[in-house]
Specification:
By secondary structure, the protein is mainly alpha-helical. The protein has one domain. It has 14 helices and no strands. The longest helix has 31 residues. The radius of gyration is 21 Å and the shape is globular.
Length: 361
């Protein structure tokens, strides 16, 4: 694994919480300075309690769905309490690390510390990653078909060049996610050995040499994961797939519910917000800041400002409080107790991480 105990603990340090918080809140503060109007406070007071309740309900449903999925993907090796801790820390890692890095490496290590052997923990994280990517690949054409040409924001103030660039970036990103998702499916279920050989050959390219060890280890992980997952019953995949649909539909619906608390939305507008959210997430995935802090706040008005006008900045803050800052705080609270439990055990893990050196290559 790429992590050890000390590195894991550094991921949950105070600096990891404060840096993205200050960056994101600094951007929001500047946006408030630019767009604040006295009537915004009155609009905030007139929020629909029903839609605010629905927003919190969808948030809870999302987190419960994540807990359900990780519990059943791990064959109930985790209790509900352990599932809660793993999901909260996984979310924290996703918020504290750059979006282009993600929290998958941390997630596999979290499962390892919960006494799930390495091969199984890597396989289980790969299952969730594969299903998450497949949801995006299959949902995007459907919502584009239903939402129509308005899915991409107009961005009139920035001109057609920016809109064309955004469309191109989205198309390239969608293609890459699709290729990655199907490569994972092929590697895990059809021909893992050939994919391993391909990855090893790719790692020998001159411009990829700096990532050679990582690619080689990833190839080994695919092989280990394939051996574990091929033995699974259909019920395992049904539970994992349905919970993935459940989780990501709730995740993408939160913005629409929050906006509906402050302005009336028709059904087709809810669908348009849902579709734009998929593209919005692609923009955030390309960010190099922790949890896309700053980028998420800046990009939000371009995608959803048409529904809110000058009140957009308030919604940006509320949205990030619910879906970002909240998990930074929860992760910081959960980690000390979780660490006290898992690091106090002196028993050895059933499996150890394979070590790959330059000589083996």
């Amino acid at each position: 694994m790429a992590l050890d105990d000390q590195k894991l603990q550094r991921q949950f340090s105070l600096r990891k919480v404060l840096l993205p918080m200050l960056l994101g809140l600094g951007v929001v503060g500047y946006m408030f300075y630019q767009t604040y109007e006295p009537g915004q406070l009155q609009t905030l007071k007139q929020a629909s309690l029903l839609w605010l309740f629905v927003t919190f309900l969808v948030l809870l449903i999302r987190d419960f769905g994540y807990m359900y999925r990780i519990r059943y993907v791990t064959d109930k090796a985790l209790s509900w309490r352990q599932s809660f801790s793993v999901i909260m820390l996984w979310e924290f890692a996703s918020c504290a690390l750059p979006s282009v890095v993600g929290g998958s490496t941390v997630a596999a290590y979290l499962l390892l510390k919960e006494k799930i052997p390495l091969g199984r923990s890597v396989a289980q994280v790969m299952v969730t990653a594969m299903l998450d990517n497949m949801y995006f690949v299959l949902a995007m054409p459907l919502v584009l078909l239903l939402a129509g040409s308005e899915t991409l924001p107009a961005l009139e103030s920035l001109g057609d060049t920016v809109r064309y660039g955004l469309g191109t970036a989205f198309a390239v990103s969608y293609l890459l996610v699709t290729l990655y998702a199907f490569l994972m499916c092929y590697a895990l279920f059809l021909n893992p050995k050939s994919v391993k050989r391909l990855l090893v050959r790719i790692s020998r390219l001159r411009w990829l040499r700096r990532w050679r060890l990582g690619i080689y280890n990833h190839a080994n992980e695919l092989l280990i994961s394939s051996q574990h997952l091929r033995r699974k019953e259909p019920a395992y995949w049904w539970r994992a797939s349905i919970s993935t649909i459940f989780v990501w539909t709730a995740r993408y619906a939160i913005i629409g519910c929050l906006i509906a608390a402050f302005t009336h939305l028709e059904a087709h507008e809810h669908l348009l917000i849902f579709a734009r959210n998929l593209i919005y997430k692609i923009v955030l995935m390309m960010s190099v800041t922790p949890g896309a802090a700053g980028v998420a706040e800046i990009a939000f008005p371009a995608f959803f400002g048409m529904f809110l006008g000058s009140f957009t900045t308030v919604i940006v803050l509320l949205y990030r409080l619910l879906t970002y800052y909240l998990y930074l705080l929860l992760g910081a609270i959960v980690f000390p107790r979780w660490a006290a439990r898992v690091f106090s055990s002196k028993s050895e893990m059933a499996e150890q991480a394979p070590v790959v050196t330059e000589k083996q290559l």
